[in-house]
Design a protein that fits this description.
Layout lengths: L1 H22 L22 E6 L4 E6 L2 E7 L2 E2 L8 E10 L30 E6 L2 E4 L10 E3 L3 E2 L2 H14 L6 H9 L5 E14 L2 H21 L3 H12 L2 H4 L12
Length: 258
Amino acid sequence: MTRRLMAAAVAAAAVLGACGAEEAGEAVPAREAAPAAPAPPPPPELSLEVDVAARRLTVRQGGQVAGTFPVGVGRPDWPTQNGEWTVTQVVWNPGWTPPPDEEWTKDEEPKDPGDPDNPLGTVQIVYDPPRTIHGTNQPESVGSASSHGSIRMRNEDAERVARMVMEAGGASRDETFFAEVRANRTRRVEVPIPNPVAIRVVNGAENADAVEGEADSGDREGARSGSSPASSDRQRREAASSPGDSAPPPGDSAHHDH
């Protein structure tokens, strides 16, 4: 009982002391609140959509079209894959490494950043390695189906989209940064996107019908011959682009194709 009386007396004295301090005009220290957990970043208002049939990339900002750009897409035997991903990295001044074990690269040599013959141009927008959107040293190919599955843009267009992605994705840089990457094209610079930007790759109805017709034709030929050339080609491409086969060497480009 004595202990309880003593505790009550101490509590009462503390209350009276606080009241006395307030009456005397003295500040009473406030209790510190526990720090709030940081809120997750909001999803970027920016999104990208590539229409393979129309060979067009559309940038949307807050649901509104912020820009459209022509693109080059994959050849019929190396079609650009449809799907939904997020952009996780932008690479300025990428280098190019020929994909191994591919017939079309048997006479190709690696190309350093800034090499005029570098097929990746001045910037890469990485969404599903080895798949990327990238610049090109063949601007005349933009608007055609001539790549090995990648999405090509004119360098100036690719740079504009890359800057928009960086800004929306929480990786904005000042003009000094962009002046430096342009002034030194032999220096590769990686920029992670902390708040990834959504990208969707689709086929328009006209192209989807054509692709379906080609697949049906291949299946009929396969049924007569006992195998499907279209299926075999598709399996070869999937194997060539599997993560185990396409992982880039350290410090190299995240994308081997072009």
